[in-house]
Structure formats: C-alpha cells, structure tokens
Design goal:
This protein is α+β, with helices and mostly antiparallel strands and 647 residues long. The chain has helices at residues 8-22, 31-48, 57-75, 81-96, 102-118, 126-147, 153-177, 207-211, 330-335, 345-357, 361-374, 390-398, 403-416, 464-468, 470-480, 496-517, 521-530, 538-583, 594-604, 609-624, 631-642; strands at residues 202-203, 217-223, 234-243, 248-250, 255-256, 268-274, 295-297, 302-303, 312-318, 378-379, 400-401, 421-428, 431-433, 438-442, 446-454, 458-462. The protein has a 6-stranded antiparallel sheet with strand order 1-4-3-12-15-16. It has a 5-stranded antiparallel sheet with strand order 9-6-2-14-13, covered by helices on one side.
Length: 647
C-alpha cells in the first residue's frame, strides 16, 4: 500500500525547518548558491500552496548538476568545509522538490540536522548555539507534524519545546560529567580556518589599515592586579626584519622552551584568552616569563607548539621593562641593517645625512624622531595613494599614513643612519570592559611599531606613530581618528550607549567561552572537587555519569508513569460506566466511540440522556483533548460515574 502524500501543513513545517537551517549559512555560502537555494525553496512553497506539481525527476537531475557545477566553479573542488556545506545546502533545497511522503520528509529533516551541526564549523558562539537550538525545536515539531494529525503551529511548537526541555537534564549531566578530552573529538576539514582573520607574517602598506576596520575580538586579558598603563600595552606578534623595497617579512628564528632574557622590573600577572587565528604566535604582553609548554623565539615572540586553531587560555606573567637582546648576534644585527639597493632613495638619503651629523646611535635616533615630528605627518585610515617608493611618498609627498607607513619609513631611515632596526607587528592598547573586568583587544587595535638596537641597552621599542598621533597610544584608534567613518561602528566615540551594550554582550560571550567552550579536563576536575570528588580519574567520572544518567532517566520514567496512571484511572472509570449501562441492557459496541454511544443510549433511554451525554463528553475531552488529563476534571468524572446507577 502506497504511503499517503504530505498534507499542506506537513509540507509547510518541512519548508520552515529548511529555511531556519539554511538562513544562518547565508553569510558563508557563495551568492550564486544562496540564490539557487532561495529559488528552490520558493518553488516548493508555491507547490505546497496548490500552484503547481512536483517537478519530474529528470528536471531535478538537471538542477542538481547545475548546483554541483556552481560549487565546482566557486571552490574548484568538492572536498573541504565550504564546498561540503554548499553541496549540502543545494541538496537540502532539491530534496524538498521531490518530497511528497513522510519517508522523504524524514530525509529532509536529517539534512536539516546536518546543516545545523555545520554552523559549529564556523563559530561556536552563544548565538550559533541559540540558532541551532531553534532549528532543533522546529525539526522536532516537523517530526511531530509528520506523525500526527494537523494542529496549530503554536501547539506543535509547544509540544516540541516540551520534548526539548525533557532532554535538558540529561544534556546537562552529559556535559558536566562526560570524560573530557583536550581538543576536539573529530578533525576539522583542512579549510576550516581559511576565513580566520588576524596578523600575517608579512606587512605591506595598507595591511594594518584594512585589519583595523574589523571589530572582531583578537583576544582578552584578565589582569590579577592593576592594568599596565596604556604606554606599556604592547602585545607582541611577528617581528619583521627582511625588506624587499615594499613588503616586510619575518626572518628565520629559532625557538626554545626558555626565554633568552632574565625577567626584571614590574610584573603583570594576567590570563590571556586567545581567539583562534591559525598561527603559532601567542600575542603576549612584552616580555613573558617562562611558562610550561610554551616556546620562546629568538626575536622574543611567545610561541605555541602548534597553530592556534581553537580558543586558548593561558596564565602568564609579563615584565615590560626587561632589557632584551643586549648580546645580539652579528648576523642578527647585519640583517637589521640591510636595505635593498635603490629603494626609497629620499628616505635613505635622509638617514645617511643624519648618520653624518649624529654623534652616536642615540643621537641618530633622536634626530630621526625629531625629523618625523617636524614634517607634521597625518595619521589616517584612508591615506592618499602612494607611489612605488612607499616610504618616500609618505615622508616627502602625501605625508599621510597609517601605523605601518610610520613604522616602515622609520626603520628604513634608521637603517640608513647605521642603527639596526626592525618592524614589530601586534596589537596596542585594548578597551577595558567594566562589566567583567577584562581588557578586550580587537582587530582594530592592530598596530605596527619599531625596535632599534642600542649598545648596552639591546632592542628598544620606539613607536614613531606616537610622535604624530600620541592619542593613538593613550586612547586607542577611536581617540586618534574621531572623525573617521571607516572605524568599526561600535568603536566610534559618539556612540557611547552602543559601546555599553557591546560591553554587556562581550561579557556574556566571555562567560560562554570560559564556562561552556572552555570547559576542559582541568575545569571539570575543579568542579568535581567543589562537590567533594577529589582527583577524579576517568573511571570515577564515568561511574558518576552513569549514576546521574540513571537518576535522570528514573525521574523522567516516574513522570511518564504518573501520566500513564492518570490515563489508566480514566479508562477504568469509563469501563465502569460502560458496564453499568450494559447491565441495564445497553451494551457498547466495539466500533462505537463515546459520542456515538451516548447518542444511541439517549435515543433508547431519554431519561438517561442528559447524564450519559455529559459523562461521554467529559470523557472524550479528557481522553482526546489537547490540554491533557486534568486532575480536578478527572476526579469530577470519577465521582459522576460512581454515582451513576441506571435501572
């Protein structure tokens, strides 16, 4: 026997579930794939409104080939996260166009669950979790629609939400007690980190300006004591020593498990929560003390053994006043003096002139800084176009630039003056969030500065941007560029109320990151220790989880049995009612429902009509009504049947 086709309400639930599952992927899918999915969903919606028929299978095969071709044209492959999600989105939309049975409807819902899971390949934020929970609730409502009679959407969603809530206790037990492993349980596709933004191991004029237009969080720092002053909030990233005339790149450096300096001076203890950026550098405050499991570069970067592909939490102790590189190697110093022949000739000539006039390296440094100040250079996110010789155009022509222009031109001038110098990229500053007491560093805080080597003092930080825009160091990007409409919306100084809202949301997101996404083996053991389970191994944790799951299942079973006992009591009362009518010569036929039985009895015994119809109506409402079995109504019915004694 063929399975009946879908009712309009069942098709509507499937379409709604597909829309909710696909909509969050709109920001990741190529525009062509998104447009195809929208058209296919609109097509299926029109069919469900009796404005057409399901297309022939050959037509669907042709559309499927077009979707596959679009994916191949966009990604040039089928393997990986992005092409996989794109193909899945197209298949889900196509599947709806051949779905006219409950069996096919279940296949559609399975694809919807896959699309909801796919959201977590891009982000694991609280918003994504909420969207996945919404999609799951609608999918469960769709399953109920496939199995049951037609019902109002509100009632269906209420039933689905009730089922989801019933699973919450078990979910919490598994989350808290399931033995944790460090890192994900599965490997992500090779392209899972292609869209991660952040610093690069090279710098070309314009890179920092583009990065500074993003308000994405790079990392957070929670200090145990007072925050370091703004002038010391330099978060060290890649150190760039090689220059080809336009771009700066990192040089070869070695790493070791211990820093090549002896920390001294004021110490700042803090916890760094670093967002994934798919690189090995850790962006610590200058200069971190030794910490287990970390690597220290010869250029004083703090490094991880592997690329940071998941949120990382580190407890660090930094000493910004530590002298570093006093005994720098001759090779390192030669590398920090190299300049391509013929590049930026005016800037090199400036450095050469200062070299002849200066008494020593300190004097040369002060003369270059004074020259930069004398030129009245402007700090801007949108400088005028520069020529091929970027430093020359910046210093002598446009006199407008962002931090990378200042740092690059300064290092070229210092090298031409005979002082070893290099560019350092990273982040400067950060915004204090008073809601949770953390310092939030965003991509818009990306910065480039310089380091010069001075005999007896080693590598010394010099920020040439501060000479022209000191407010950039003290107050951040918004303070230095108050009138720029290219700033991230929430970073503009005129929107204080919106920044307050952002602080609240950031604090909430930070709690989610720390207590949900950051719930690792150490946190699990600490939580269990608070409940008296000290040094729990995986066997103990597994036993606790099994016991807790048993208790939850027992509680749910008791709740279900209670509802069943109420239903059994209702049936027992109805059976007593039927037996008493049968003893009066009015037995109920097997095929008769409550209302039909009452009508027949009323026609044969008019003296019993009112009582029989009332009891039958109350029974039918309790047995088949949407409100369930109410205790007071059940007791009232039982009392009526107990007192019903026909003759």
């Amino acid at each position: 026997m063929a399975e009946p086709g879908l009712r309009p309400d069942q098709a509507g639930w499937l379409i709604a579930c597909a829309v909710i599952s696909l909509a969050p992927h709109g920001q990741h899918l190529p525009p062509a794939i998104t447009a195809v999915c929208i058209l296919l969903l609109l097509w299926r919606t029109a069919i469900s409104l009796d404005k057409g028929h399901l297309p022939h299978r050959l037509l669907l095969i042709g559309v499927a080939a077009c979707v596959v071709g679009l994916v191949l044209l966009e990604y040039h492959q089928f393997f990986g996260k992005d092409p996989g999600i794109a193909v899945l989105a197209g298949l889900l939309s196509l599947k709806l166009l051949e779905t006219d049975s409950r069996r096919d409807g279940r296949a559609v819902l399975l694809l919807c669950f896959f699309m909801q899971t796919g959201l977590f390949l891009y982000q694991q934020s609280m918003l994504v979790a909420a969207l996945a929970l919404l999609g799951t609730t609608v999918a469960i409502g769709s399953l109920l629609a496939l199995q049951g009679r037609s019902a109002a959407p509100k009632a269906r969603l209420t039933a689905a939400a009730r089922l989801v809530l019933q699973g919450v206790p078990l979910m919490l037990v598994l989350f808290v007690l399931f033995p944790r492993v460090q890192g994900p349980l599965w490997g992500l596709p090779a392209d899972a980190y292609n869209r991660v933004s952040g610093l690069s191991d090279s710098m070309t004029p314009g890179d920092m300006a583009r990065l500074s237009e993003s308000s994405d969080i790079a990392f957070r720092a929670a200090f145990a004591g007072e925050l370091p002053p703004p002038a010391e909030r330099y978060w060290r990233g890649p150190v760039l020593s090689r220059f080809d005339g336009r771009s700066w790149r990192t040089a070869r450096s070695s790493t070791s498990p211990r820093p090549a300096y002896a920390p001294q001076g004021v110490a700042y203890p803090y916890t760094l929560t670093l967002e994934p950026h798919n690189q090995r550098w850790l962006l610590a405050l200058d200069f971190p003390a030794e910490a287990p499991g970390l690597r220290y570069g010869s250029d004083f970067q703090l490094m991880s053994g592997d690329p940071v592909r998941s949120r990382l939490r580190l407890s660090l102790l930094s000493y910004p006043h530590t002298p570093v590189g006093i005994d720098a190697s001759p090779r390192e110093l030669r590398e920090a003096l190299a300049l391509p022949s013929g590049s930026n000739p005016r800037t090199q000539a400036l450095g050469a002139r200062i070299r002849q006039e200066a008494r020593d390296a300190d004097d040369a440094l002060q003369r270059v800084i004074a020259d930069f100040r004398h030129r009245s250079l402007s700090y801007t996110l949108d400088p005028q176009p520069l020529g091929r010789e970027d430093a020359d155009s910046f210093l002598f022509d446009t006199k407008q630039g962002f931090c990378e222009h200042f740092a690059s031109a300064f290092v070229i001038a210092m090298r031409a003056a005979g002082v070893p110098a290099r560019v350092v990229t990273g982040y400067q500053g950060g915004e204090f969030n008073p809601v949770d007491g953390t310092l939030v560093i965003r991509q818009s805080d990306a910065h480039a500065w310089a380091e010069v080597w001075l005999a007896g003092r080693g590598w010394t930080r010099v920020d040439p941007t501060a000479a022209s825009a000191p407010r950039r160091i003290d107050g951040g990007l918004a303070a230095a560029l108050p009138d720029s409409d290219r700033l991230p919306l929430l970073a503009r100084s005129s929107l204080a109320w919106l920044r307050e809202l952002r602080n609240q949301l950031d604090a909430l997101d930070n709690r989610w990151n720390q207590w949900v996404l950051g719930y690792n083996p150490a946190r699990q053991k600490a939580l269990l220790a608070d409940f008296g389970v000290v040094d729990a191994d995986w066997q103990t944790i597994t036993a606790l989880m099994a016991g807790a799951c048993t208790l939850v299942m027992a509680a749910l079973t008791a709740w279900v049995l209670r509802r069943r006992l109420s239903a059994d009591a209702l049936d027992r009362s109805w059976s007593l009612f039927c037996r008493r009518l049968a003893s009066a010569g009015l037995p109920r036929a097997a095929w008769e429902g409550p209302q039909d039985y009452a009508e027949r009895v009323a026609s044969q015994r008019p003296d019993l009509a009112d009582t029989v119809k009332r009891i039958a109506t109350d029974y039918a409402r309790l047995r088949y009504g949407r409100t369930g079995i109410e205790r007071a109504a059940l007791q009232s019915l039982k009392h009526s049947i107990k007192n019903f004694r026909p003759r």
